[in-house]
Write a structure and sequence with these properties.
This protein is α+β, with helices and mostly antiparallel strands. It has a domain of 83 residues: ACT domain (Alpha-Beta Plaits), CATH 3.30.70.260. The protein is built from four helices and five strands. Strands 1, 2, 3, 4 and 5 form a five-stranded antiparallel beta sheet that branches. The longest helix has 18 residues. It starts with a helix and ends in a 14-residue tail after the last strand. Pfam families: Ribosomal_S10. This is Small ribosomal subunit protein uS10m. Belongs to the universal ribosomal protein uS10 family.
C-alpha cells in the first residue's frame, strides 16, 4: 500500500502538466505559415520489361550446382516468375595444364593437372525490371563458394520513331 502511495505522489498532477504546455506554446517566437506543397512532375518513368533472362551457373562441384539451381527455381516460383528451361551440359569442360617436376632437366618427368568446370542454365521469361533486380540480388547474395553466375538480359524496347511501318500501295 505504501508503494502505491509513493508512486502516486511522485507523478505530477494534470494541472502542472497543462500549465507547462501552455507556457511552452506561448513562448514560441514566430509561427511560420503553412506553405502549399507543389505536386511532383507528371513525367512517369516506366519500368523495363525483359523478354528473357538467362542464368549461366558455373562451378567445380556438380552437386552444389544442382542444389543452387533448385534454390534459384524455388525462389523464382515464389516470386511468380516463369521458368521455361533448366538444364545442364552432359560433360564437364576440362582444362589441363602440364608442368615439369624439375625446372632445369628431365623432360620425361611431367605432372598434369586438370580443372573441371560444370555448367547449369536457367531461362526465365516475361520479367519486369523491379522483379528482375530483386530476384537477381537475392540469388547473388546466396551464391555458394566455388560457383560463378553470369546473367544475360534480353530487354523489350519500343520501336524507334524513325522506323515507319510499310505502306501498302494498291
Amino acid at each position: 500500500m505504501n508503494a502505491i502511495k509513493l508512486l502516486w505522489r511522485s507523478t505530477p498532477s494534470r494541472s502542472i502538466l497543462f500549465n507547462y504546455n501552455t507556457t511552452r506554446l506561448a513562448s514560441a517566437a514566430t509561427i511560420t505559415p503553412i506553405q502549399r506543397i507543389e505536386p511532383p512532375p507528371s513525367t512517369i518513368k516506366l519500368d523495363k520489361l525483359y523478354k528473357r533472362v538467362e542464368l549461366e551457373m558455373r562451378g567445380i562441384d556438380p552437386a552444389v550446382l544442382l542444389s543452387y539451381s533448385w534454390f534459384c527455381i524455388a525462389a523464382a516460383t515464389h516470386l511468380g516468375i516463369d521458368v521455361t528451361k533448366s538444364w545442364a551440359l552432359r560433360k564437364a569442360e576440362k582444362e589441363r595444364h602440364t608442368l615439369l617436376r624439375c625446372v632445369h632437366i628431365y623432360k620425361k618427368h611431367r605432372v598434369q593437372y586438370e580443372v573441371r568446370s560444370y555448367f547449369r542454365f536457367i531461362h526465365l521469361q516475361r520479367l519486369t525490371g523491379s522483379t528482375c533486380d530483386t530476384y537477381l540480388e537475392y540469388i547473388e547474395r546466396n551464391l555458394p563458394e566455388g560457383c560463378a553466375l553470369k546473367v544475360t538480359k534480353i530487354e523489350c524496347q519500343t520501336i524507334p520513331d524513325h522506323i515507319k511501318p510499310p505502306v501498302d500501295e494498291k
